[in-house]
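Limitations

Structures in this collection are predictions, not experimental determinations, and the ligand pose is part of the prediction. Treat each record accordingly. The example that follows, with flavin mononucleotide as the small molecule, is included so readers can see exactly what is and is not provided: the inputs are given verbatim, and the output is the predicted complex.
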Amino acid sequence: MDVIEAMETCSAARYLKPDPVPQELIERVIYAATRASSPGNSQEWDFIVVRNPEAKRKIRDLLAPRFKAMGVGVPRTGRVTSGMIAGATHLAETLNEVPAIIFVCGPLAYPPNAPLEQFVWSALYPAAQNLIVAARSLGLGTTFTTFHMFMENELRELLGIPREVRFGVMIPIGWPQNDFVKVKRKPISKVIHWDKWSD
Ligand SMILES: Cc1cc2nc3c(=O)[nH]c(=O)nc-3n(C[C@H](O)[C@H](O)[C@H](O)COP(=O)(O)O)c2cc1C
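Predicted complex:
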């Protein structure tokens, strides 16, 4: 699949089938993730792939009630639609049924002499974006989430993640129940500034 076509149809897939995803495909998307750029080619990223049913159930049980409580208060305005909140709530509530959850994590490690927090994110986000686009090209659905923020301490304990390792993104992955759709984004004319800032 053409890479731009994969990007423009890499819509958030919040309704996933429980059917298993072969390990080889998970390794393929992580291979793609690890082809990303990183500061100084530091490659300070780790991918925790949770497939264990008991662990997924615990993660669902931690997240679902907290997300639901938060979702009630989120205004359905602008680009946040009720469909988005309903989808995110569904994903949170069915996390135990998704084939795998990938946590993209990385240590506070760059630059080596004086590590800075922002370099953690500058390594993890490009890797995560490569991962979701690669998944799309294979027909696999993902959603880029920050669900981990609702339960970081508990996740550290459950998954044995050391303190110095930061959570970047939590990505449920599986075969999508619905077709991929073209993502809706601002036209480039609204965001390009040729040569200097312009309104
Ligand atoms: C940093 C970041 C955090 C996100 N967190 C969540 C999340 O916690 N739950 C969720 O369902 N979607 C999450 N998303 C997905 C966005 O809501 C989604 O990409 C956006 O609404 C556009 O939808 P589309 O990609 O299907 O066009 C996140 C995306 C980004 C980049």
